[in-house]
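Figure 6 in text form: structure in, sequence out.
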């Protein structure tokens, strides 16, 4: 069953308000999310959001919504072709990214911008800080809210699921402030370099329906 928009957002909003997270600075490097203590309520909500393993197949309420999605998929596939030449793999990636973005209540153009900056669309990218995959998720997240197997962060849907859930979690903590959210995701909260890179990359993925 396809999640409705804002599924993860609704689940985490209440828990985020209770989280006694510590604000710590860190050097700016790709995907270096800072490990911070999580309140039990937040850990439970994040774990539940990760654990739902529904396949990335959206269900639409009407023909117009489905046509809009297909237009998006076709346009994004064309834009991504230079970075992912194989058609089937490219479409599978985009279908999954759209699904996980919608599930977390995030704009897919934002998530595409994060993926571009973090990994350059490389599935097996590893940063100097040890972050993994498309969205450069730090291995400690597998221990905090997953099953402990950090190797699974190289699995496409798992990586996009973690990345979108974490991004939504940070967006809730920062009360919708995308600049601070992106800095926190990168481990450089309050600094402009990383958010500006993502904002710039995002422009390449904005979709305007015909």
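Output sequence:
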């Amino acid at each position: 069953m396809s999640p409705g928009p804002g599924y993860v957002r609704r689940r985490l909003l209440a828990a985020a308000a209770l989280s006694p997270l510590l604000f710590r600075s860190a050097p700016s490097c790709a995907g270096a999310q800072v490990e911070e203590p999580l309140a039990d309520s937040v850990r439970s909500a994040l774990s539940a959001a990760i654990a739902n393993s529904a396949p990335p197949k959206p269900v639409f309420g009407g023909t117009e919504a489905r046509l809009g999605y297909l237009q998006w998929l076709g346009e994004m596939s064309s834009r991504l072709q230079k970075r992912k030449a194989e058609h089937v793999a490219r479409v599978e990636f985009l279908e999954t990214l759209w699904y996980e973005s919608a599930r977390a209540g995030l704009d897919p153009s934002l998530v595409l911008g994060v993926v571009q900056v973090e990994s350059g669309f490389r599935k097996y990218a590893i940063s100097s800080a040890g972050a993994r995959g498309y969205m450069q998720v730090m291995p400690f997240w597998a221990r905090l809210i997953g099953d402990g197997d950090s190797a699974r962060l190289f699995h496409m849907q798992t990586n996009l699921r973690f990345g979108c859930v974490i991004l939504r979690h940070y967006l809730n903590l920062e009360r919708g402030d995308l600049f601070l959210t992106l800095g926190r995701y990168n481990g450089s909260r309050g600094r402009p370099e990383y958010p500006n890179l993502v904002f710039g990359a995002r422009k390449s993925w904005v979709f305007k329906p015909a």
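Caption detail: The first helix runs from residue 7 to 18.
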